[in-house]
Amino acid sequence: MSTLRVVLGDQLSPELSALDGLDTANDTVLLAEVAEEATYVAHHPQKIVLVLAAMRHFAAELRERKIRVDYVALDAPGNTGSLAGEVARAAARHGARRIVATEPGEWRVLEDMRRWSARTGLPVEIRDDSRFYATRERFARWAHGRRSWRMEHFYREMRREHGVLLDDGLPAGGEWNYDAENRKRLPRGLELPARARFAPDAVTREVIALVTGRFGGHFGSVADFGWPVTRAEARRALADFLATGLPSFGDYQDAMKAGEAFLFHSLLAPALNLGLLSPREVCQAAEAAWRADAAPLNAVEGFIRQILGWREYVRGVYWMLMPGYGGSNVLGASRPLPAFYWTADTPMRCLHEVVRSTERHAYSHHIQRLMVTGNFALLAGIAPHEIERWYLAVYADAFEWVEMPNTLGMAVFADGGRLASKPYAASGAYIDRMSDFCGQCAFDVRQKSGPRACPFNYLYWAFLLRHEQTLGPNPRLAMPYRTLASWSAERRAAVLREADAFLDATLKA
Ligand code: FAD
Ligand code: DLZ
After folding, report:
1. Residue nearest to ligand 2 atom 17, measured at CA
2. Gap from CA of 494 to ligand 1 centroid (Å)
3. Which parts of 371-474 fold into alpha helices (H)?
4. Which amino acid residue places its CA nearest to atom 1 of ligand 2?
5. Looking at the 3D structure of the chain, how many domains does it have?
6. Residue 207 domain-assigned (yes or no)
7. Does a cis peptide bond (omega within 30 degrees of 0) precede residue 323?
8. Same domain assignment for residues 41 and 167
9. What is the pLDDT of residue 509?
10. What are 50-77's pLDDT values in tens digits?
């Protein structure tokens, strides 16, 4: 029986469940470049290049294995521009009797897939995505019956279940979590490793020309494109990280430096999210580095926690809470996204730096996303949907299953604590402690109010005041609310006035 097997742009793994049982004599694998996936949010051109170039390379690898591939290029005559349209056309072209796919990473696409059968008149089998440590069903089993979900609890269960960083069933080194050791500032003069970047080959260069022509108006530049687009390149990126980044990953995980986007981070999220690398091989390689004495435990545990812990946890939360999750707005935030998120045109040096490197690399590291652009959106009360669409658009690694919970749950607390136990709200002091941004800023981080005061300072207190009823009872915020309890009514009113005046002026600009 002829089967059409559909592989999406972030499903580029030879072990993909949609390919299980493939019959090379009768089956066809469909990969389709469609405008709809590039424009439902205006993705950074580097992300579109990454996905299309990786799809083209993956198709070539399948063909080398004598698998029949039907590849629809973006500019192919008759391309309908949608996944559903291309699946229907391909099913007819190949006389398919059934369609097999792997569940997608986005609710929108899952809904679409569920309509493919009605559209084509064929049975459609949607298989689990087995490329994660935990299936959706496994996460649901963990989550059901718990009053609250916390990453740390899930992570420990995953460590035990998969035997990761365990010695005789106990956590390696005696602790489950070494986060307290992972908050160092970058020492002045510390040499940063040169990172593996991958020069575009002829295939990728052709995609760059295509994407520049079609989507050149989107935010972001492709000039510095250097992402791995094949499994072989992704393996080299992993090896490079293990040798040069991992040993210091833990120490400087939260540090930020002007003009330096990458520091000791792995840059592996795009390859992981496309399926060029599996989370298991990455975690196993990191653990092996520790066992071979090539990296310290605080680095290796911290790195593995991001993948086996956070990455799996946010995916579980996404699928548990969709489709309603996208509308979360517990804090009633409603201000529009400031224009500087697209232009970097702001005198606040930290925001300028992070938006600039986002524009240049389609990348910024976790603390830049969480504590600079995310923290500002939280404190300023930016409408969650607007900031969420921004994160989905601007990063090479952005796919809704991972981006949405990070934005709504972790960065702007729109879900009221389903994902995290408290909002990651911080004043300018945090940014000053972890970066060198403040020294070169138009504002003064030590001033709490007045025209030269760092806006993060009064925005922070105004945020806590505005949400006192909702956040005041949170034990993790007891300290700042104790401070606020000693403030006079006049002082409270003055901070709120200053914050509002700043926001009104900033959002008008
Ligand atoms: P490293 O710092 O080297 O971390 C190693 C790996 O751990 C990453 O490659 C990633 O796979 C995983 N990881 C780390 N933190 C997280 C996390 N919080 N959630 C899930 N996985 C994590 N990550 C994405 O992959 N796609 C997104 O769209 C995305 N959007 C985000 C939006 C916001 C507002 C925030 C605060 C975080 C977001 N993250 C996202 C998580 C994290 O910032 C990125 O995974 C990380 O910055 C990618 O860079 P890296 O590969 O160098 O990661
Ligand atoms: C992100 C993306 C882009 C830009 N283009 C395509 C495409 O042309 N064809 C395709 O199959 N997938 C693409 N993708 C990835 C999808 O958007 C992704 O599979 C869904 O968002 C589900 O995660």
Report:
1. 37
2. 37
3. 375-380, 384-394, 400-404, 428-434, 455-466, 468-471
4. 37
5. 3
6. no
7. yes
8. no
9. 61
10. 999 999 999 999 999 999 999 999 999 9
What are the tens digits of pLDDT across the range 284-306? 999 999 999 999 999 999 999 99
Mean pLDDT of 409-422: 97
pLDDT tens by residue, 354-388: 999 999 999 999 999 999 999 999 999 999 999 99
The answer on 397 and 312 residing in a single domain is: no
Atom of ligand 1 nearest to the CA of 410: 36
Residue 452: burial class (beta carbons within 10 Å; 0-12, 13-18, 19+): exposed
Query: Is there a domain that residue 195 lies in?
Result: yes
- The CATH number assigned to the domain holding 460 equals 1.10.579.10
H or E element in which residue 475 lies: none
Ligand nearest to the CA of 105: 2
pLDDT score, position 1: 74
Same domain assignment for residues 269 and 376? no
Last residue of a domain, one of 321, 353, 372: 321
For the stretch 464-507, pLDDT in tens is 999 999 999 999 999 999 999 999 999 999 999 999 999 999 98
Domain shared by 43 and 163, yes or no: no
CA of 434 to the centre of ligand 1 (A): 18
Pocket of ligand 2, candidates 10, 55, 222, 400: which has the most ligand atoms within 8 Å of its Cβ, to mutate?
A: 10
Instruction: Please give the pLDDT value at position 507.
Output: 82
At 9-39, the pLDDT tens digits run 999 999 999 999 999 999 999 999 999 999 9
For ligand 2, the distance from its centroid to the CA atom of residue 468, given in whole angstroms, is: 41
pTM above 0.90, yes or no: yes
Instruction: Kindly give the distance from the C-alpha atom of residue 326 to the centroid of ligand 2, in angstroms, as a whole number.
Output: 19
Domain assignment present for residue 205? The answer is no
Residue 54: name the closest of 106, 101, 109, 10 by CA.
10
- Residue 98's contacts (CB-CB under 8 Å, 6 or more residues apart) are 1, 3, 4, 122, 123, 124, 125
DSSP of 222-291: -TT-----SHHHHHHHHHHIIIIIHHHHTTTTT--BTTBS-TT----HHHHHHTSS-HHHHHHHHHHHHH
Domain that residue 400 falls in = 340-508
Where does a domain end: 127, 144, 160? 127
Contact residues of ligand 1, CB 6 A cut-off? 265-269, 272-273, 303, 306-307, 310-311, 314, 365-366, 369-370, 374, 391, 395, 397-398, 402-403, 406-407, 410-411
How many angstroms does the Cα of residue 46 sit away from the middle of ligand 2? 13
Task: Looking at 135-257, list the stretches that DSSP marks H as alpha helix, in order from N- to C-terminal side.
Answer: 136-143, 151-162, 202-215, 231-240, 246-249
Using the mean position of ligand 1's atoms as its centre, give its distance from the Cα of residue 264 in Å. 14
Average of pLDDT values for 130-143? Answer: 97
Question: What's the pLDDT band for 145 if we cut at 50, 70, 90?
Answer: confident
Candidate of 8, 29, 40 to mutate for ligand 2, largest count of ligand atoms within 8 Å of Cβ = 8
Which pLDDT band holds residue 93 (cuts at 50, 70, 90)?
very high
Determine, yes or no, domain membership for 252: yes
